[in-house]
Amino acid sequence: MNKKFRIIGLGLITFLIVIQFFHPEKNNSEVDAAGDLIQVASPPDQIAILLKHACYDCHSNQTVYPWYGRVSPVSWFMERHIRKGRDKMNLSEYGTGEKSEVIGLLVKICEVMDDGTMPLKSYQSLHKESRLTQEERSLICNWADNEAMRMIRNWPVEPEE
Amino acid sequence: MLLKLSAMKKQIVYIASAGIMFLFFQSFHSGTLKKQEIPDEVGTILKTSCYNCHSTGSNAEKALEKINFDHWNDYKLIKKIELLGDIGKMVEDEKMPPEKFLDRNPDARLSEDQANLLIDWTKQETEKLMQVN
Question: Does the CB of A107 have a partner CB in chain B at under 8 Å?
């Protein structure tokens, strides 16, 4: 019995060590000044920091990994999670979308701030800097709405890329 | 005489301002009407393929939360632009109407022409809304 446990334990440890050699590629490319929301729309610093803390890990190409994020199998789970988030909305590609798409994105930012669906509860429980107060939520929401309106007002005066 | 003239002047000012107001409201009115106009063809497609879930009276809560065509005129300008983009994308990716719904309602399936018509409409409408400054 004792021996059986030891074999299972040893097997498990070996398995955990071996999987450490298999990592998904890091979601950590250079900031694209023409695509990144903070670069393109240049929100006030306070909002930029909130967005970085609450959204950018899953909704941009620049994830800031916690230490356990580089440990398999957590890293695999995380990678899938990030991919899903980026598919929905990628703030690193903000500037590359059509203007109407960007407006749609801003509207969605405001909505998820307002109804509290984002950041995900599970993410918040692990990242306390991502927890937003009601004031911070309204701040982001209002900024996004105003930015969307600004884009319409400037349409089509601003040169198209 | 002097009094009379100033009364007349006043009258002219009244009439002129009433005229200006009238013109202002007229343009405002026709402007909103124009915005609300949905071409018949598009309206028919929406009714047969989308209204089942996306209009008042539907039980599909999730669908209604996303978009309720009966409330179209109540949506804010930027919300309309967002929804038009989503409609176009959903139709283009054939995510809407959903396959499950089509199994039960084969008439709601969009032909290629209908899908294109809808997509074009969302683009034109977006363009139109973007011009409203």
Answer: yes
Count of alpha carbons within 13 angstroms of residue B90, beta-carbon side: 18
DSSP 8-state secondary structure symbol assigned to residue A17: H
DSSP string covering B39-107? -HHHHHHHHHHTHHHHSTT---HHHHHH--GGGGGGS-HHHHHHHHHHHHHHHHTT-SS-HHHHHH-GG
pLDDT-derived band at A32, boundaries 50, 70, 90 = confident
Rounded Cα gap, residues A115 and A137, in angstroms? 10
Per-residue pLDDT of chain B (133 residues; tens, 9 = 90+): 555 666 667 777 777 777 666 655 555 444 444 445 678 888 889 989 999 899 988 888 889 989 999 888 899 999 999 999 999 999 999 999 999 999 999 999 999 999 999 999 999 999 888 886 5
Contact B126 A148 (CB under 8 A): no
Q: Which residues pair with A62 in a beta bridge?
A: A28
The ipTM estimated for the assembled molecules is: 0.75
Percent of chain A with pLDDT over 90: 57
The pTM assigned to this predicted structure is 0.76
**CA–CA distance, A63 with A56 (Å, rounded to integer):** 7
B79, B132, B133: residue with CB nearest A107: B79
CA-CA distance, B16 to B9, in Å (whole number)? 10
- Nearest CB neighbour to B85, from listed A104, A145, A155: A104
**A34 vs A115: CA distance, rounded Å:** 30
- Entry field: residues in chain B: 133
Token pair in block for residue B39: 């071409």
φ, ψ (nearest 5 deg) of residue A28: -155, 60
B39: number of Cβ within 10 Å:
12
User: Tell me, what DSSP letter sits at residue A70?
Assistant: G
